[in-house]
Amino acid sequence: MVRVDKCYFCSGPLYPGHGIQFVRNDSKVFKFCRSKCHKAFKKKRNPRKVRWTKAFRKSAGKELAVDASFEFEKRRDRPVKYSRELWQQTIRAMKRVEEIKQKRQNRYLMNRLKKGKELEKAADIREVKQNIELVKLPAAGLRKKEEAMVHVIHEESDQGEMLVEN
After folding, report:
1. pLDDT tens digits for 89-139?
2. What is the pLDDT of residue 60?
3. How far apart are CA 6 and CA 13, in angstroms?
4. What residues contact residue 15 under an 8 Å CB cut-off, 6+ apart?
5. Beta-carbon neighbour count of residue 98 at 10 Å?
6. Among 32, 28, 35, 30, CA closest to 10
7. Are 32 and 22 in contact (CB under 8 A)?
8. Which of 31, 98, 150, 157 is the most buried (most CB within 10 A)?
């Protein structure tokens, strides 16, 4: 099985044979997916403050940060005796966990965007109320004036008929 690691800086996937490894004097290994991440690390940039990293997105509340499904992603180094049945169950469980995680992330994203939509709608309503003269049709006022003129003409004709009868 191929081990896909995570980039130390941006948390992106790191496939075998790709990226750069940096080993510090205390023998801590840092793996980077590309030179962009390696350079940012060497410049001592904080991943939580760099806008394109996963750490920033989670700390800013743009992505789901706390969820029980993240427990499944933790690295386990304990060896397990191979069993075809166990392997198949594990694969099925991984697919199911991924589905659940996707649904939760989508729900979180929709809830996050819902607030913005409500604010946008309120701002639109406020703008329409302030500039209602731009929205009303000029013909709407003409129709009322026309009806008033017709009413006045009918009144005048009624008065004219009364005068002729007298």
Report:
1. 989 988 998 898 899 889 888 988 898 899 999 998 888 888 877 766 666
2. 83
3. 5
4. 2, 4
5. 12
6. 32
7. yes
8. 31
SS3 76: coil
Residue 120, amino acid = E
For 122, the token pair is: 């309120």
At 144, list the tokens.
């009322």
AA identity, residue 161: E
CA-nearest of 5, 1, 9 to 73 is: 5
Q: Are 50 and 35 contacting, i.e. CB atoms less than 8 angstroms apart?
A: no
Place of tokens 């510090």: 24
* Residue 157 CB-half CA count within 13 A: 6
- Give the residue among 4, 54, 58 at the shortest CA–CA distance from 31: 4
Report which DSSP code applies to 8. T
pTM exceeds 0.85, yes or no: no
For the stretch 27-83, pLDDT in tens is 999 999 999 999 999 999 999 999 999 889 888 877 776 777 767 767 677 888 888
